[in-house]
Design goal:
Order of helices and strands: HHEHEHEHEHEHEHHEHHHHHEE
Number of helices: 14
Structural class: alpha/beta
Strand content: 5-15%
Number of domains: 2
CATH superfamily of the largest domain: Spore Coat Polysaccharide Biosynthesis Protein SpsA, Chain A
Length: 452
């Protein structure tokens, strides 16, 4: 218990320093003479604006973003383990097994691993039935209180894996039959240690929230690909991540002391100089959350895990391990994703208290301009899988406005991390596995939140 309390206090300190720094940066310009008050924001706007152009727009203008990788068949196919951590997934687990078994891949080189993480519904019975049908299906059962969340489930199965690659999937994942052949061929020929599939939303047309998430996933993939093409850093996204087993073992497995195993592993691979790529087509398809309450819980977890990894790995990130280009990429991304929302709220509060005009608006223009540009680029690109939202004025405005929720989530999560002990909370996203059009107008189902 003492060690856990020490670790929690150690994480509160950098969160507090980060919060104080952002508040000071947002408030201090209000003390400058009026003609100089905007200078700090303009200088930072120029820096981040250049980053946005270099990351999103230059690859498109140069045609690099649309270039298709050479995915011709390999002479010798490596063994692959498909790994899914599942808890209470009776609605989708059978469908998932059928789809994984239908993947085209070299005979005898593909195994399916389902970690039943203490399910209390009919998931065990469904898996037992499918084991009789598919001999390549292996099931590992853990007690519900085993701990570690998804990371713990993945670590439990890791010693039993034998393939060169493991593809980590969520229980609601949907894949094209030829995806694995194309993905593994790309990873092998590119010399990557990990490859993240683009994520695509299958229930885009259910409501405005799911449509906005579909645009957000396209935005994220565009920025990730742009960061890769400009010498920056690509991050894993959990569902649809292809990992070299030896690379994961060299990172000592998955971190059970984080709420976002994928983001944490991204930085573990980064500091070991293990290259990570993004694969645009075909994507991994998944369900978007359907209610704002579920989105709020999900995004708090993402924000906490995203900040935590910067705090935990800051010494390695700022040391001599990484080249200057990746450091600049990380610094720019950190400022846009995490610092700007807190700074903007501090600026707004100071503006109200002092009766002065807000000063961070140039930075907000860059953030929302980058977001709108990435949404436009992503949704206009040709893509396999579910159709991306059509790009008209309404949808583009919706996507940009929707991203404003990060200006609430990030400051709130930062304040909570700075003031309260660290909480390891695994928020299970409910997967319905049904005809989504039939759910329109119904009250959305809520995911379960479990303390670990």
């Amino acid at each position: 218990m003492a060690a856990g309390g020490t670790a929690s206090a150690a994480r509160r300190l950098p969160a507090s320093l980060f919060l104080i720094g952002c508040v000071a940066a947002g408030a201090a310009p209000h003390a400058l003479p009026q003609q100089q008050a905007l200078w700090p924001a303009i200088a930072l706007t120029l820096l981040l604006g250049l980053y946005a152009v270099r990351t999103v727009f230059l690859p498109v203008l140069q045609g690099r973003a649309s270039a298709q990788p050479d995915t011709s068949a390999l002479r010798e196919w490596p063994a692959v383990d498909l790994v899914v951590a599942a808890r209470d997934e009776e609605a989708v687990i059978g469908r998932l097994v059928e789809r994984l078994a239908a993947l085209t891949y070299a005979s005898g080189l593909l195994r399916i691993w389902i970690v039943d993480d203490g399910s209390e519904d009919r998931t065990p019975e469904v898996l037992a039935t499918y084991q009789q049908r598919y001999p390549q299906l292996q099931v590992l059962r853990r007690p519900r209180d085993a701990g570690g969340g998804k990371s713990g489930a993945l670590n439990a199965v890791l010693p039993q894996l034998q393939g060169r690659w493991l593809l980590v999937l969520d229980a609601d994942a949907q894949l094209q039959p030829d995806l694995l052949e194309r993905l593994v061929s790309y990873a092998e020929q590119g010399g990557w240690s990990a490859v993240q599939l683009r994520k695509a939303v299958v229930n885009t047309d259910l409501n405005i929230l799911t449509k906005a998430q579909a645009m957000e996933m396209a935005l994220d993939a565009v920025i990730q690909q742009g960061r890769l093409l400009s010498g920056g850093v690509v991050e894993l996204r959990g569902n649809g991540q292809l990992l070299q087993r030896e690379a994961v073992l060299s990172c000592e497995g998955f971190n059970e002391e984080t709420v976002t195993d994928d983001l944490d592993l991204s930085f573990r691979l980064l500091v070991q100089r293990q290259p990570v790529a993004l694969f645009w087509d075909p994507p991994v398809q998944e369900e978007a959350v359907t209610a704002w309450s579920a989105l709020w819980r999900q995004r708090q977890r993402w924000a906490e895990g995203g900040l935590q990894r910067f705090f935990d790995y800051w010494p390695q990130l700022s040391g001599s391990t990484l080249p200057a280009g990746q450091k600049l990429d990380l610094a720019s991304f950190f400022l846009l994703q995490y610092a700007l929302p807190v700074l903007a709220i501090a600026d707004l509060i100071t503006s109200g208290l002092t009766g002065t005009a807000p000063l961070s608006w140039p930075l907000s223009f860059v953030a929302f301009g980058l977001s709108g540009g990435a949404i436009l680029v992503g949704c206009l690109r040709s893509s396999e899988g579910p159709a991306l939202p059509a790009m008209g004025p309404f949808n583009l405005a919706l996507g940009i406005a929707y991203l404003g929720h990060w200006f609430v989530v990030i400051p709130y999560t930062t304040l909570r991390m700075a003031l309260l002990p660290k909480r390891l909370v695994w928020a299970k996203t409910l997967h319905v596995g049904a005809d989504h059009s039939a759910l329109a107008g119904e009250a959305p189902l809520e995911p379960k939140a479990l303390e670990l």
